[in-house]
Amino acid sequence: xxxxxxxxxxxxxxxxxxxxxxxxQDMNHEYMYWYRQxxxxxxxxxxxxxxxxxxxxxxVPDGYNVSRLKKQNFLLGLESxxxxxxxxxxxxxxxxxxxxxxHFGNGTRLTVT
Amino acid sequence: RKEVEQDPGPxxxxxxxxxxxxxxYSNSASQSFFWYRQDCRKEPKLLMSVYSSGNExxxxxxxxxxxxxxISLLIRDSKLSDSATYLCVVGPYNKLIFGAGTRLAVHP
Lengths: 113, 108
What we know:
The structure holds two protein chains of two kinds.
Chain A: E1 4-7, E2 10-13, E3 19-25, E4 31-37, E5 43-49, E6 56-57, E7 65-67, E8 73-78, E9 87-94, E10 103-104, E11 108-112
Parallel strand pairs in A: 2-11
Antiparallel strand pairs in A: 1-3, 3-8, 4-5, 4-9, 5-6, 7-8, 9-10, 9-11
Chain B: E1 4-6, E2 11-14, E3 19-25, E4 32-38, E5 45-49, E6 55-57, E7 60-65, E8 70-75, E9 84-91, E10 97-98, E11 102-107
């Protein structure tokens, strides 16, 4: 029972490079989320999805794109990485009901130099 | 104003103490309320959901006050293992927003 799996766990990029973070869940959850966490701050919502084929902007969407082509996968893309995107990225999923909590992946530590 | 705001930390308390955290939110349409704990920048882990009538889980008690738009967490008989950052999470369930977190340090 893997739950929520994020790949990769660590990545170093140079400014201007692109990359995609993958989140996969095996719990048949409808809702999926991408958050970032910076030192001294809580998790901030980047984008989320309420079902296959849908995406929506969160609190800090600029510089990121997402896709949810399959229900179990939620991809986060950085088209042109910037040092301000150095952060820890967490993916989460939820059944999407009032008392349903978020289930998190282990996180991806991204450094942009 | 931030959508979700928490007490600033850190809270430094001795073992056995009772400590309370508050969290205010601005979106009156919020339906979902949770407390999570986070250790050393690892993934957040669910501590407890917060129900309208309030709820208790062992040493932990959570309350919701919709009129004043805040939730609270009470920890009784603090243990060393309770040292962590406590995050409140509020929102409509399609857009859950985290507070910045309150750090708790329990010392012998």
